[in-house]
Structure formats: structure tokens, C-alpha cells
Design a protein that fits this description.
Length: about 200
């Protein structure tokens, strides 16, 4: 996306398209609006079937494991054979620092940072996000996923009663991207005030 006279344009197949109507608010000149698909990995889990489950092997991430802000791999323990994982699903392996999200059902929209060292793969209704490189700070994207700005763009694409989002929905989300140093400052401020907000909420 490029900006001309503060009006954002998207370049698709070499052609410019004005997206001013999609932009929800103005941002500083040093920031830019970006499609999530242009700056982040967006990877959906495999559609593992019941007959593939095993009592041990390589564990699968499920929507039950994803809590708001954390992951609990003991809440649901599902596995596939390690041989099958190595043969078909290694590309779905989670990496430390990935943003994992529940993307369907009643728990959709819950996000957490993956910080487990064990080998675990994405499964149905789970999705991972991660900025492509060091031009962006992954924790900035993590906090964006929790905002109405982010979630409302997904809700606007809802086509049925049951929430069920995937790459095609997430790829259309617009995010405001500040310079890298500003991303770090924003995250630092959020992490400074969140404990205060949590204490006030408990009261």
C-alpha cells in the first residue's frame, strides 16, 4: 500500500486501487496502512480427522488449548503419529514467538504467544500469525489482534451464523504499521499499563 497526498492506494497486479473508504482513521505520515497478508504469515491448521488421532506421537494444537493470552496444552491432548507428521505436516510446526489464534466457534478471536519448546502442529480452526521479518515487531501485531479494529474487520466478513475464519478473511485485514521504534514504544506502554488494568478489573 502506498500513500499519495495522505490517500492510501493498494497495488494489485501492477494496478493502483484507492482504499480510502476502507481506512477507518488517519495515521501519522510516518505510518502506513498494510494488508495483513503483505506483512505477516497467515497459516491455517490441517484438517486432521478423528481416524488420524493416536494416544501418543506429535501433539496437535486445538482451539481448547488457546486461552486469552496464554496456551494450556493440558486442556486438550490430541496426537497424530509422528511418522505421519514428519511425512505430511512439518510445515505446520509452531515456532516460539508465533501468534496462535482460535479462528472459529464460540472461542474465536482468542490469541496467545506460542512459547512452548515441544514440537506441536496446527490443527483445524487454529491459525498462526507472524510478521515476515525484523521490519516489524511481533508483539505489536499480537496486541493488534485483540483490538476492535482487528476483530471488527473479520466480523464484517462473516457470512453465516457460525464464526469460521481463515486465510481469506485474515488476509483482507488492514493494520496501521508505525516505524519499528514506535512499535516497540507502543508495546512497552501497553505492557506497562496492563497490570494496572487487570487490578482495576478485579476490583
Amino acid at each position: 500500500i502506498i500513500t499519495r497526498d495522505k490517500i492510501p492506494y493498494e497495488i494489485i497486479d501492477g494496478k493502483e486501487r484507492c482504499i480510502a473508504d476502507e481506512v477507518p482513521f488517519e495515521i501519522p505520515d510516518s505510518w502506513c496502512w498494510c494488508r495483513l497478508s503483505n506483512v505477516s504469515i497467515i497459516q491455517e491448521g490441517a484438517g486432521i480427522r478423528t481416524y488420524q488421532y493416536r494416544t501418543s506421537g506429535t501433539q496437535i494444537l486445538t482451539v481448547t488449548n488457546i486461552l486469552e493470552g496464554s496456551v494450556d496444552m493440558k486442556k486438550a491432548t490430541k496426537y497424530i503419529a509422528t511418522e505421519e507428521y514428519l511425512d505430511k505436516y512439518q510445515h505446520l510446526t509452531l515456532n516460539i514467538g508465533d501468534i496462535v489464534s482460535s479462528c472459529s466457534g464460540a472461542s474465536w478471536g482468542k490469541t496467545a504467544i506460542w512459547d512452548y519448546g515441544d514440537t506441536v502442529m496446527l490443527n483445524t480452526s487454529t491459525l498462526r500469525l507472524r510478521f515476515f521479518n525484523d521490519t516489524a515487531y511481533n508483539m505489536y501485531l499480537y496486541w493488534l489482534t485483540k483490538t476492535p479494529l482487528f476483530k471488527n474487520q473479520l466480523i464484517a466478513q462473516l457470512s453465516g451464523m457460525q464464526p469460521n475464519f481463515g486465510y481469506s478473511h485474515y488476509s483482507k485485514v488492514l493494520i496501521p504499521l508505525p516505524p519499528l521504534a514506535e512499535q516497540h514504544r507502543i508495546v512497552a506502554k501497553i505492557e506497562e499499563i496492563m497490570p494496572m488494568i487487570e487490578r482495576l478489573t478485579q476490583r
